[in-house]
Specification:
The protein is α/β, with parallel strands linked by helices. Among the domains are: 102 residues, OB fold (Dihydrolipoamide Acetyltransferase, E2P) (Beta Barrel); 190 residues, Rossmann fold (3-Layer(aba) Sandwich), CATH 3.40.50; 157 residues, P-loop containing nucleotide triphosphate hydrolases (Rossmann fold). It contains 22 helices and 22 strands. It has a 7-stranded mixed β-sheet, with no helix packed on it. β21, α18 and β22 form a beta-alpha-beta unit. α4 runs antiparallel to α6 and α7 packs across α22. The C terminus is likely disordered. The protein binds adenosine-5'-diphosphate and magnesium ion (MG). The site of magnesium ion has 4 residues, from α10.
């Protein structure tokens, strides 16, 4: 028999074979080494199994017992009685997947997890079940793997411990010994043993942490390299002396908050360098980011450079145009607004002025990124609501001419783990304070039966001169999604407020139509605006005091927080109404979090925990090694350590090969990463 090697095809691993190898291939696993990096997504701790008799309503429990009887009350539904030495409990599936019948039969030994309800009898609706072969190894901790058709937990639980024993010692541990011991991490082979065959949950976690740390370190090394790269690039310095500083501040119609003043100074220090600024400005909705953008742009213009402000929607671009126009009234700054709908002739004129240097400041939408847009001397670019853009788009703007200074802004506070991982190449300024006079927004969850009284409340607000937003997630009704469409909501609101003018804004309106609707609402010509989510970002109507959100459970927390940020901007007490049919406990939990706090950072952390990082990344194509093992909701400490270590240990020691990998990643994209696909 030949010597084993981690590069061996996975089918030769004992207990796998050709059929299961094909299933594993679908998960991107081709080699024995890659199989070792197929990590459990969770563990069942049989030590935590409870006697059936002891369970209480609402508890999440694990039970072990035998199926006593099975009933199919109607097609698709399945109920079973599970019995242990202490008692019985009913398991119920309202929509039973077809394969379930094979596992649930009288006499089957099961491990069951789920939340207990007490109806007439105690029951567990839609539990997770594991078949327990009585003869199988009674390990206390059962790993649960990501699976695919033709692959079961039982197969992997049997195959992995021997595979680890055979192949793990052959893997080269590329993590520097000194880092490993500094953080008390396990050697590679022990870590793999710990994740696949743990004796305790703590041991499994210790194994996972070692592998997750390694992943974080690879990421941070790429990041450190990028940061160095940017710091080596050259840009035109835009020093702001005290006179210029004062002149810019005079343009603002208010006194900056302390947080804004701090951000000004941070931007000012960046711009004084002959290297490009690469800064993210994060601040909750309404924290006054526009003023910071204006500060940076005016510094550029004062140095005869051009500045561009990129906004994700026309409504927002127009609003920025209006704001800046007002602040710059009477100045010599030549400003223009470039959006997609501009007539061709006007557009051509504008572009040639831009190219000739006869425009100083341009505000625009995606239209700004177009290849036909050329600057004479773009010194600074601002990207508002960065998550609406990809990095490539950002870079397309930055590539217009010599490297400009870059300020990117986000109204969704980025949880620290993400800041340290995917956004780690940016410097950060934070506006953690709202301008004075902001009123807290009261947030109420409105069940359907309270709709009438909620409408009565809205009516009172309107009668005292306020305005109200109504927002629905979709334009048209859909069978697939159980959410109220905006068209329906529009009709309903018109019927409920027959004496009021009700405006309707949605993405399909022509550009001029949208502008007109927003203008009418801003000017108070109508008390109610029904809208799809197009108003999510940046709309400023201080007289609006109600934000009513339909089918609120359909939104992410960060989105809801953004929508709520549209109100509470004036001097009036404001209320956010969350209409919801939320049946799922988790949906309700999300809404309750929102109702309980207005702290954008707290909300972001919760969103990350509940929905994963997707919401924050948007269309960001970050080109960084992805994190598969590290968990952005809980591995903050590892990311921080890895970031520090990446500074002091920038490279892997030479001569140590990367682990075997069927699909090797680029050398600097993190060699010490698990092999195998994603
Ligand atoms: P953001 O873009 O961060 O959501 P904006 O820049 O649109 O916030 O500012 C929100 C509102 O607060 C605007 O009406 C703006 O004029 C006002 N504002 C900003 N900074 C201050 C300040 N320091 N004092 C008073 N009002 C301010
Ligand atoms: Mg804004």
């Amino acid at each position: 028999m030949p010597e084993p090697s981690p590069a061996d095809p996975v089918q030769f691993v004992k207990g796998i074979g050709p059929g299961r190898a094909a299933a594993l291939e679908r998960l991107g696993i081709r080699s024995a080494g890659a199989l070792l990096y197929h990590l459990p997504r969770a563990y069942l701790d049989r030590g935590a199994v409870r006697p059936v008799r002891s369970v209480r309503a609402g508890e999440l429990v694990m039970l072990q017992g035998t199926v006593e009887s099975v009933v199919v009350p109607r097609r698709g539904m399945l109920t079973a009685v599970l019995e242990d030495a202490s008692g019985r409990i009913e398991l119920v599936w309202f929509h039973a997947p077809p394969f379930l019948g094979k596992r649930i039969f009288p006499g089957a030994a099961l491990l069951v997890t789920g939340t207990v309800q007490i109806r007439r009898r105690p029951q567990i609706p839609h539990p997770e079940v594991e078949s327990l072969d009585e003869s199988s190894d009674p390990a206390a901790i059962l790993p649960c793997y990501p699976l695919t058709e033709g692959l079961t937990n039982r197969v992997l639980r049997a195959a992995l411990p021997p595979a680890v024993a055979r192949y793990a010692p052959l893997l080269k541990d590329t993590l520097e010994e000194v880092l490993r011991t500094r953080h008390g991490l396990l050697p590679l082979d022990e870590a793999l043993r710990a994740v696949h065959a743990p004796r305790t949950l703590a041991e499994a976690e210790a194994g996972r942490r070692r592998l997750a740390y390694e992943e974080c370190l690879a990421l941070q090394r790429v990041m450190a390299k990028r940061r160095q790269g940017v710091h080596r690039e050259e840009a035109v310095a835009l020093p702001v002396d005290d006179a210029l500083h004062a002149r810019i501040l005079q343009r603002l119609p208010f006194r900056p908050t302390a947080a804004q003043a701090r951000a000004f100074e941070e931007v000012r220090a960046d711009l004084a360098q002959a290297h490009p600024m690469n800064r993210m400005l994060q601040g909750d909705v309404g924290s006054g980011k526009t003023a910071v953008a204006a500060y940076a742009m005016l510094a550029a213009v004062a140095h005869q450079g051009q500045a561009a402000l990129l906004a994700p929607t026309e409504i927002l671009a127009e609003q920025h145009g209006r704001t800046l126009g007002a602040w710059l009234q009477g100045s010599r700054v030549r400003m223009a607004l470039l959006t997609g709908g501009l007539p061709a002739k006007e557009r051509r004129r504008m572009l040639s002025r831009l190219e000739d240097g006869n425009l100083d400041l341009i505000v625009g939408t995606h239209a700004l990124i177009d290849g036909s847009v050329r600057f004479r001397k773009l010194a600074l670019a601002v990207v508002d609501e960065q998550h609406k853009f990809g990095v490539l788009q950002r870079e397309a703007l930055a590539a217009k001419g010599p490297r400009p200074h870059l300020l990117i802004m986000t109204a969704t506070p980025i949880p620290r783990t993400l800041m340290l991982s995917v956004f780690g190449d940016l410097d950060v300024s934070t506006l953690d304070e709202l301008p004075p006079g902001r009123r807290a927004v009261e947030t109420r969850i409105v069940p359907e039966e309270d709709r009438a009284s909620a409408y009565a409340f809205v009516r009172r607000e309107i009668e005292s001169g306020r305005q109200a937003f109504f927002v629905a997630p979709l334009i048209d009704p859909s069978d697939r999604v159980a959410a109220k469409a905006a068209t329906l909501l529009h009709k309903e609101v018109e019927a409920a407020f027959p004496d009021c003018r009700v405006l309707f804004l949605h993405g399909r309106l022509p550009r001029a139509g949208k502008e007109q609707v927003m203008e009418d609402f801003r000017r108070g010509r109508a008390p109610i605006l029904v809208s799809t989510q197009v108003i999510e970002v940046g709309v400023d109507v201080p007289n609006a005091s109600v934000m009513a959100i339909e089918s609120a459970e359909r939104y992410g927390l960060a989105q809801l927080h953004q929508l709520r940020g549209r109100i509470g901007r004036g001097k009036h007490a404001s209320t956010c109404l969350l209409f919801s049919h939320a049946a799922e406990a988790e949906d309700l939990e999300r809404l309750r979090i929102l109702a309980s706090t207005q702290d954008g950072f707290r909300i972001s952390e919760e969103d990350l925990r509940l929905r994963g990082p997707g919401e924050f990344l948007g269309t960001r194509q970050h080109g960084l090694p992805e994190l598969r093992i590290a968990d952005l909701a809980k591995d903050l400490d590892l990311l921080i350590k890895a970031r520090q270590d990446a500074q002091s240990f920038p490279h892997r020691p030479s001569g140590s090969p990367a682990p075997p990998s069927p699909r090797r990643r680029p050398a600097d994209a993190g060699a010490p990463r698990p092999p195998g696909g994603s």
